[in-house]
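Project channel, design review

CF: Before we commit to the Ferranicluibacter rubi constructs, I'd like one complete example in the thread so the newer folks can see what an input/output pair looks like. Taking tRNA uridine(34) hydroxylase.
RD: sounds good, go ahead.
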Amino acid sequence: MTNSATTLLQEAQGAFLVAALYHFARLHRFADLRDPLQAVCDENGVKGTLLLAQEGVNGTIAGTEAGIAAVLAFLRAQPEFKDLEHKESRAVAMPFLRMKVRIKKEIVTMGVEDIDPLTIVGTYVEPKDWNALISDPETLVIDTRNDYETAIGTFRGALDPQTKTFREFPDWVKNSTGLHNKPKIAMYCTGGIRCEKATAFMKSQGFDEVYHLKGGILKYLEETPPQESLWEGACFVFDDRVSVTHGLGEGEHTLCHACRQPLTLEERASPVHEEGVACVHCHDTRTDEDRERYRQRQRQIELAKKRGSKHLGS
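CF: and here is what came back for tRNA uridine(34) hydroxylase:
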């Protein structure tokens, strides 16, 4: 494919390259990396969020091809991140408002001490082998994501813990009966990082055969033809695209700015839906004062759009 043809294809898919990444490492100098990493992102017009902690790096960023390449090159130049992998998709519009490099205690918050994916972790399963594993009647499939994510898409037959946050997952495991009824446990999440800790936790709880989808749902949707897929629905993503589908094309969902729940076309057609103010999920739980405050914010968002800018509170 010629350079011009490649450029046209990329423009059709979306002008911005989105890179999702994480890497567990012994990163004792994580605080010292914050400012240089922020500077590289800013200098190259890259936006998004990157988390640094003693256990590594995690985040999603968006920008031009050259901008993303510069940030990834900076990260891989660090000895701790030389083997860092990332997943790519595209966005029609810049899906982030700003660039934030944050220092955290954990790059994915489970809240359990001594869970270290560098020491113990489940067995990685490539997307091409995932269907066979989860179709095996001897396998229990567990979705490690939260309830608002599973609501818009999941693998057929998967067990949904219905957690509000990842911190609830360990208690769910400890309090659930029947998890030992099948010899194999197969787990998945959006990009793979939650399963690093979830499978490590399951191993610590005495589960022997624990597997997880390498690269997460994103890699599966990228590599698996729709006609062969066992995925149903869309995959929630933590940026302005809200969801992606097979081939990592942008989904139909938008986000309710009142309750942060993803909304389908049908839900947006509900008579109780008011853009930026209320939706079918939160209409009955908000006061009139809440809704008036949201209306004022929505007016500011719409004014910002007319000026060709983004309202930071949106």
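RD: helpful, thanks. The mean pLDDT is 92.
CF: The first helix runs from residue 3 to 13.
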